[in-house]
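Same chain as my last thread, 264 residues:
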Amino acid sequence: MSLLIINKPDVTYCINLFLPFDLIFFAVSIIFNCMNKVFANADVAIFDIKSNASIMLGGFGLCGIPENLIDALKRKNVTGLICISNNAGIDDFGLGLLLKTHQIKKMMSSYVGENAEFERQLLSGELEVDLIPQGTLATRIQMAGMGIPAFYTPAGYGTEVATGKEVRQFNNKNYLMELALHADFALVKAWKGDSMGNLVFRKTTQNFSTSMAKAGTITIAEVEELVEPGELDADHIHVAGVYVHRVFKGTNYEKRIERKTVKL
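reply #2:
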């Protein structure tokens, strides 16, 4: 085996040179930057996301979605993506941008009713879709982060959701076995974060994002405000930095409202 040996004052690193070049580059950059997780922008942070990757995208509706990272994926033009998200965005925002450019191969979601392009691609057979009850989707992601491989739920029993799934009875009630849901990458957007990757979310933006951040093999976070370690109140941190691999300060947030109601 060919190894790259890097000697530091207090430790020696050995890197397998048969790994893909981008992983070697990432490992070396981390070593020489003293485990620096801070990246300049979204385009740099997604350097190793390739076509056919599975990606979790946090947020609830359009609230708290990783806008910068979605735009970067569009610019990079990766295709064949499997996207796991509470929703599919709208026609000209959020994941709707990636649907419009046909970069998404499969959507795993619970609510998709606001996107006409999603509907068109589904009905024409252009898009694979796995509609998952919202509670089941949230729990599958949560279980992945906790290291629990499967769980039982009554949601979906007796419907198409149950097709091909194991059924067990507990206390005279039927339950489906659902598997934990992992992804190659988890992309989330937080209100505040520090250079160690600790994240703080605001209100509704916690939905899905806090669980997804723990369920991705690589988690990338964009934040509205990036601070130094120690500046965040430890009691207010929602996701510990141990789960986050890369963080950057986002820009130009639109924060669109899905349906604006001005009177009843």
